[in-house]
Amino acid sequence: MDNNYNNNNQGGYVQDPYNNGGGFEPQGSKGMSIASMVLGICAVVFGCCITAYVGLPCGVAGLVLGILSRKKDLPGKGMAIAGIVCSIVALALSVLGIIIALVVGDSLKEWAESLQNASALFIK
């Protein structure tokens, strides 16, 4: 039997010689941070290039997941921050795109009606 190991027995319990004093703490999952970042990127792409109506929900979901990940102090801090930033940018672009679509759409409708009225004068 190893005397050094037995001599380190203090207080009536046996110490683990491999324990460095830090215990093992599970780090948790980076899933929420990854989801925030992916949704933020998708929101930017959909909000700018395809349609703001798809970018808006993706941006909101990415923002919520990123904020929850940071509040719970989960791993993946950089991805969560990237998701928050991308989601905020996407939300701003989506709202701006919807406003522009409403204004331009209404103007285009009036312009098309004026063209129809003008062409009706020439056809008679």
From TrEMBL:
Domain DUF4190: 32-96
A Pfam entry, by short name: DUF4190
Keywords: Membrane, Transmembrane, Transmembrane helix
Transmembrane segments: 34-67, 79-104
Record protein name field: DUF4190 domain-containing protein
Organism name: Ruminococcus flavefaciens 007c
